[in-house]
Design goal:
- The structure holds 2 protein chains of 2 kinds.
- Chain A is of the alpha+beta class.
- Chain A has 2 domains: 76 residues, Beta-grasp domain (Ubiquitin-like (UB roll), Roll), CATH 3.10.20.30; 70 residues, DNA polymerase, domain 1.
- Helices cover 33% and strands 16% of the residues of chain A.
- Chain A is built from 5 helices and 5 strands.
- In chain A, strands 2-1-5-3-4 form a 5-stranded mixed β-sheet, with helices on both faces.
- In chain A, helix 2 crosses helix 5.
- Chain A is globular.
- Chain B has an 8-stranded mixed β-sheet with strand order 3-5-1-12-9-10-11-20, with helices on both faces. Chain B has a 5-stranded mixed β-sheet with strand order 7-15-14-13-8, sandwiched between helices. Chain B has a 4-stranded mixed β-sheet with strand order 16-27-28-29, with helices on both faces.
- Helices cover 30% and strands 24% of the residues of chain B.
- Among the domains of chain B are: 169 residues, Aldehyde Oxidoreductase, domain 4; 218 residues, Aldehyde Oxidoreductase, domain 4.
- The longest helix of chain B has 28 residues.
- By secondary structure, chain B is α+β, with helices and mostly antiparallel strands.
- The chains are: A alpha+beta, B alpha+beta.
- The interface between A and B is large, with 59 and 60 residues.
- The complex binds FE2/S2 (inorganic) cluster (2 copies).
C-alpha cells in the first residue's frame, strides 16, 4: 500500500513517519513509532484509552487519521513527565493508588491534564463529567477523581 | 547505638503497609509493557478469524481461495490444519474447538484463521472467506432452552432436610422468580497473544491470561507436542476479571499454530467487537423459589430451582453453576432446603468465569427471596435479613453441610447500621416518598458472605520460586498472575517481611510456566492466599539456611540470629543483609528455593453435595441509597457506605481499591450493562457504544469504603488476611435492592416488585407501571 510521509511534532520533537491511508494516529503511534504508552481499548472512539492532545485539544487517537497530521502538534503520555520529574497528576495517581491494571491510566492522565488546563479549579462533579469519556473497568473511579482534585489543588498552589 | 535506632525503623513495603501498585510508576508514564506493547520480532504476522453468518448449522461449503489470494496473506488455517487436538476446553470436554470443523455452534464462531503481514490485511482478507451452512433454528434464551430441555450438563442438587415437608408444615408460604442478565468482562485490554517460534518446533507465548499453565497444556495438545515444548509468559494483564481464565487459550492456540507453521512470530489480538462477540461472559441465570416462613419472617423451608445459560460448550459452567448454588444462602440459615440448578445449552458464545463465578447470581436469588418474605410480613428488609442470619446455636449448617464457624456479619451489620445512620435515613426516605409523587427514593443494606477456595479441591495448590543473588538482590516468581489486583505487590510484601528487606530490593518477575509449573488459575480470589503462602514457605527455606550458616560461622545459637530491617543481628553484631548473603555464597549456601502450598482443611464430595469446600468466608456489607424517576425509569445512586472484611489487610490501599472497583463493576452488572442478542443469535451489544459499563459520572456522589477494623481471619492464612478479589462485587446487590425498595414505595411496601436485572430504566419503568396499576 502506498504510504504518505507526514511531518509532525510529538512531545516537542519533530517526527517524520510514513502512514498508509486509513491508518489511525493510534496505529501510527503504536506500530510505526513504537510509542506504546497510548493504548487501544476499543478502536471506535468510545473508551478514551487512546487519548492524546492534538493541537491543544484532547482527541481519541483511534479516530484521527495519520495522513491528516502534517504540521500537527501532538502530546502523548510519554511526554508528560519532565525527564524523571513526574507531572503533578502522575504523582497524585501514585499517591492515591488511583490505578489497578493501569491500561486506562495514560488516557485518563492525558485527558485530566487537558481538562485542568481549561478548568484549573473544578468541582468534584465537573471532574467526574470531564472524565466520563474515559472508561476504567478496574478502579470504580473514586481514587481517580480524588487524585485529579488533589493535583488541581497543588497545581493552583504552584501557580 | 546506631544499630538500635535502625532496629526500630521499619522496612519499606512490609505487610500491612498501604502502597500503590508495584508498576504504578510505569503505568503513569506509559512504560508498563502489556502483551501488545512488546516489541514485535521482525516479520511478525497478524491474525484475524473468519466465520459463518449463522448461529447453528452444519458447514456445507468452505471456500477460502479469495482469502489466500488477498494482499499480505501468508497463511490460512482451518480445522484440518491442526496437528493435534482441536480443543481448548478447560475441562477437556472436547467441545471448544480452536476452529470449528463440521458445525458452527454460535454466531461468529471462528471457522478459519488468516495470518497476514498487517492486522488490517488479515482483517480484510478474513472477510473474503465463503462459509456456507445448512442452518438450524438456534436456541438462544433460557426459556427456549428450558422448553426443549436443551442441556449442556446434568442437573445438580443440594439437599438438607426435607424441603417439601418443611414447606407443607410452614405457617406461611410464597413463591417468586427472577432473571438476571450476563455481563461482558470489558477488560480494557482485549484478548491477545504473541507466539514466538523457538528451536525444535517449540514455542514461547506471551499471553494475556489468568491461567498460563492451562494455556500451555492446551496448546501442547493442539500442537501435538509435550507440555515442555510450550512456554507461556504473562507479565501483566490490562484487566481480566475471569474472562482470561479459560478463554485466552483459543487465541494463544491460533498464534502458536501460525508461529510453528510459518517460523515467524504471530500475534492474535482481538479487536473490541470480536472480543465481545467471540468470548464468553457471565452466565445469565433464572431462579424461582417457594419459601416457607413464620410470622416474624424467619425462613423455615426453601425450595429453589435455578437455570444457568451456559452457551454452546461446557467450559467452566458446571463449577460456576455449582457456585451459584453454594451462595444461594448468602448469609442466611435455610432450614429444610433443596437447591437445584439446571445447566442450559444455548447456541451462543460459551459463558465463562466472571468475578464471583456464579456466586453473585445465586446470591441475588437468595436476597430476592428474603426481600419477598420481608415485604410479606411487612417489615424492614434489614430486620428480616438479621433474623435469618447464621450465627445462632443450631443455625450454622449450610445447604452443603458445611459449618459456618467464622460468622462476623452480626457485628459488622450492627456497626454499619450505626455509621450509615440507616434508621434515620429510612425514616427520612419514607417521609420523602410520601410527599414526592414522581421521584422515589430507596434504601437497602445487603450483606455478603463469600466462600474462599476453589470448590474443585485439587486446584488449591500453588508454587513459588525465590532466588537471592550474591549481591543481596532478590528475585521473586510464583504461579499467580497480575491483572491489576496487586497480587505481585502483596506477595512481594510478604517476602520483604520475611527477609526484613525493603520491598524495592525484590524484583517481581513475569509469571512463566518454565519457572513454576502446573499452577492453578489466578482465580477464585485465591491468588494472594495461595501464592503468598508459597512464597513465604520459599523465603523461610532460604532463611533457615542463612540462620544455620550464621550460627556456624559466628558461633551463636539460632535464637541469636534475627532479621532486622535490611540487616541481620547475629549475637551482638549487626551485619548488612547484603554482606551476609555475600558470605553465605562464598560458603556455598544455596540461595534459591521453591515453596509449595496446599490449602488445608478443605474437602468436598459432589455426589452427596456435602463437605467443606471453603477454607473460610469473606464478609462485607453495603448500604445504598438511590432515587428513581417513576415516569421515565431514570435512576441515580446517591450514596453508598461499605464495610468490608479483608481480615488483617496486607495492603489497605490495594484492598480498598479492589472493594471500590468490585462494587462499581457489580453495580454495572445489575443496572446498566445489558447484553442483547437478536433473533439470529447475533450479539448486538458488542462495543462500548451499545454496552454500558459505569463511567466516572456514575460514581455515587457519596461513597465511603471502610475496612472492618476488627477483621482477622480465624484460619491461619497469610498474615491472617482474607481474599478480596471477588466478594466486593456482590456489595452492589444493595443498589439493586435499593431500586427495588424505591419501587416498593409505590404500593406501600406491600410487595416486592417484579424486577429483573439489570435494572435498566426500561425495566424500572415497567415495574413501576405494574405496581401503580396494582395499587390503583
Ligand atoms: S481506543 Fe480510541 S477511544 Fe477507545
Ligand atoms: S485500571 Fe484497569 S482499566 Fe483502569
Amino acid at each position: 500500500m502506498a504510504k504518505n510521509f507526514v511531518t509532525t511534532t510529538i512531545n516537542g520533537d519533530e517526527v517524520e513517519f510514513a502512514s498508509y491511508p486509513g491508518q489511525s494516529l493510534l496505529d501510527v503511534l503504536r506500530s510505526e513509532l513504537h510509542m506504546t504508552g497510548t493504548k487501544n481499548g476499543c478502536g471506535s472512539g468510545d473508551c478514551g484509552a487512546c487519548t492524546v492532545v492534538l493541537n491543544g485539544r484532547p482527541v481519541n487517537a483511534c479516530l484521527v487519521l495519520g495522513v491528516e497530521l502534517d504540521g500537527a502538534e501532538i502530546e502523548t503520555i510519554e511526554g508528560m513527565a519532565t525527564g524523571t520529574k513526574l507531572h503533578p497528576l502522575q504523582q497524585k495517581f501514585l499517591d492515591h493508588a488511583a490505578l489497578q491494571c493501569g491500561i486506562c491510566t495514560p488516557g485518563i492522565l492525558t485527558m485530566a491534564k487537558a481538562f485542568l488546563e481549561k478548568n484549573p479549579d473544578p468541582t468534584e462533579s465537573e471532574v467526574r463529567y470531564g472524565l466520563a469519556g474515559n472508561l476504567c473497568r478496574c478502579t470504580g473511579y473514586d481514587k481517580i477523581v480524588r487524585a485529579v482534585l488533589d493535583a488541581a489543588a497543588d497545581m493552583r498552589a504552584d501557580g | 547505638m546506631a544499630e538500635l535506632t535502625r532496629q526500630k525503623e521499619r522496612i519499606r513495603g512490609g505487610v500491612a503497609q498501604a502502597l500503590a501498585h508495584d508498576s504504578a510508576s510505569k503505568h503513569v508514564t506509559g512504560q508498563a509493557v502489556y502483551v501488545d506493547d512488546i516489541p514485535e520480532p521482525q516479520g511478525t504476522l497478524h491474525i484475524a478469524v473468519g466465520s459463518a453468518a449463522v448461529a447453528q448449522g452444519r458447514i456445507t461449503n468452505l471456500n477460502l481461495d479469495a482469502v489466500r489470494a488477498a494482499p499480505g496473506v501468508v497463511c490460512v488455517l482451518t480445522a484440518d490444519d491442526i496437528p493435534g487436538l482441536n480443543d481448548v476446553s478447560p475441562t477437556h470436554s472436547g467441545d471448544d474447538p480452536v476452529l470449528a470443523g463440521e458445525r458452527v455452534n454460535f454466531f461468529g464462531q471462528p471457522v478459519f484463521a488468516v495470518a497476514a503481514e498487517t492486522f488490517m490485511q488479515a482483517k480484510a482478507a478474513a472477510r473474503l472467506g465463503v462459509v456456507d451452512c445448512a442452518a438450524d433454528t438456534p436456541v438462544l434464551t433460557i426459556d427456549q432452552a428450558l422448553a426443549k430441555n436443551y442441556l449442556i450438563s446434568q442437573d445438580h442438587e443440594m439437599v438438607r432436610g426435607d424441603a417439601a415437608a418443611g414447606l407443607k408444615a410452614a405457617r406461611n408460604r410464597l413463591s417468586g422468580q427472577m432473571e438476571m442478565g450476563g455481563q461482558d468482562h470489558f477488560y480494557l485490554e482485549g484478548q491477545v497473544s504473541m507466539a514466538v517460534p523457538m528451536e525444535d518446533g517449540d514455542v514461547l507465548i506471551h499471553c494475556s491470561t489468568q491461567h498460563p499453565s492451562e494455556v500451555q497444556h492446551n496448546i501442547a495438545h493442539v500442537l501435538d507436542r509435550p507440555a515442555n515444548a510450550v512456554t507461556v509468559e504473562v507479565r501483566r494483564m490490562g484487566g481480566a476479571f475471569g474472562g482470561k481464565e479459560s478463554q485466552a487459550a483459543q487465541w494463544a492456540a491460533l498464534a502458536a499454530l501460525v508461529a510453528v507453521r510459518t517460523g515467524r512470530a504471530a500475534k492474535c489480538r482481538l479487536d473490541r467487537d470480536d472480543d465481545m462477540s467471540l468470548t464468553g461472559k457471565r452466565h445469565e441465570l433464572a431462579g424461582k423459589w417457594t419459601v416457607g416462613y413464620d410470622d416474624d419472617g424467619r425462613i423455615t423451608a426453601a425450595d429453589v430451582e435455578m437455570a444457568t445459560r451456559c452457551g454452546n460448550s461446557k467450559d467452566l459452567s458446571d463449577a460456576i453453576s455449582d457456585r451459584a448454588m453454594f451462595h444461594l444462602d448468602n448469609a442466611y440459615y435455610l432450614d429444610q432446603v433443596r437447591i437445584l440448578c439446571k445447566r442450559l445449552r444455548t447456541d451462543t458464545v460459551s459463558n465463562t468465569a466472571f468475578r464471583g463465578f456464579g456466586g453473585p447470581q445465586g446470591m441475588m436469588i437468595g436476597e430476592r427471596m428474603i426481600e419477598s418474605v420481608a415485604r410479606a410480613v411487612g417489615k424492614d428488609p434489614l430486620d428480616v435479613r438479621k433474623l435469618n442470619f447464621y450465627g445462632d446455636e443450631g443455625r450454622n449448617t449450610t445447604p452443603y453441610h458445611m459449618q459456618v464457624e467464622d460468622f462476623v456479619l452480626g457485628d459488622m451489620i450492627a456497626e454499619l447500621e450505626t455509621t450509615s445512620d440507616y434508621r434515620a435515613r429510612r425514616k427520612a426516605i419514607t417521609a420523602f416518598n410520601e410527599s414526592s409523587p414522581v421521584i422515589k427514593r430507596g434504601l437497602a443494606l445487603t450483606p455478603v458472605k463469600f466462600g474462599i477456595s476453589f470448590t474443585t479441591t485439587f486446584l488449591n495448590q500453588a508454587g513459588a520460586l525465590i532466588h537471592i543473588y550474591k549481591d543481596g538482590s532478590i528475585l521473586l516468581n510464583h504461579g499467580g498472575t497480575e491483572m491489576g489486583q496487586g497480587l505481585f505487590l502483596k506477595v512481594a510484601q510478604v517476602v520483604a517481611e520475611e527477609f526484613q528487606t525493603d520491598v524495592d530490593r525484590i524484583k517481581i518477575t513475569a509469571t512463566n510456566t518454565a519457572k513454576v509449573p502446573n499452577t492453578s488459575a489466578t482465580a477464585a480470589s485465591s491468588g494472594t492466599d495461595m501464592n503468598g503462602m508459597a512464597a513465604m514457605i520459599a523465603a523461610r527455606t532460604i532463611k533457615r539456611r542463612l540462620i544455620a550458616f550464621a550460627c556456624n560461622q559466628y558461633k551463636v545459637e539460632e535464637s541469636d540470629v534475627e532479621f532486622i530491617p535490611n540487616q541481620v543481628r547475629i549475637g551482638n553484631q549487626v551485619v548488612d543483609f547484603d554482606d551476609l548473603i555475600g558470605q553465605a555464597y562464598l560458603n556455598r549456601v544455596q540461595l534459591s528455593a521453591t515453596g509449595f502450598y496446599r490449602t488445608p482443611k478443605i474437602h468436598y464430595d459432589r455426589t452427596t453435595a456435602s463437605g467443606r469446600p471453603f477454607y473460610y468466608f469473606a464478609y462485607g456489607a453495603a448500604v445504598a441509597e438511590v432515587a428513581i424517576d417513576t415516569l421515565t425509569g431514570e435512576n441515580r445512586v446517591l450514596a453508598v457506605d461499605i464495610l468490608h472484611d479483608v481480615g488483617q489487610s496486607l495492603n489497605p490501599a490495594i484492598d480498598i481499591g479492589q472493594i471500590e472497583g468490585g462494587f462499581i463493576q457489580g453495580m454495572g452488572w445489575l443496572t446498566t450493562e445489558e447484553l442483547w442478542w437478536d433473533d439470529s443469535g447475533r450479539l448486538r451489544t458488542h462495543a462500548p457504544s451499545t454496552y454500558k459499563i459505569p463511567t466516572c459520572g456514575d460514581r455515587p456522589a457519596h461513597m465511603k469504603v471502610k475496612l472492618w477494623e476488627k477483621g482477622r481471619n480465624a484460619e491461619a492464612t497469610i498474615h491472617r488476611s482474607k481474599a478480596v478479589g471477588e466478594p466486593p462485587l456482590m456489595l452492589a446487590m444493595s443498589v439493586f435492592h435499593a431500586i427495588s425498595d424505591a419501587l416498593s414505595s409505590l404500593d406501600g411496601y406491600r410487595t416486592v416488585p417484579d424486577l429483573d436485572a439489570p435494572a435498566t430504566p426500561e425495566r424500572i419503568l415497567m415495574a413501576a407501571q405494574k405496581l401503580k396499576a396494582k395499587s390503583r
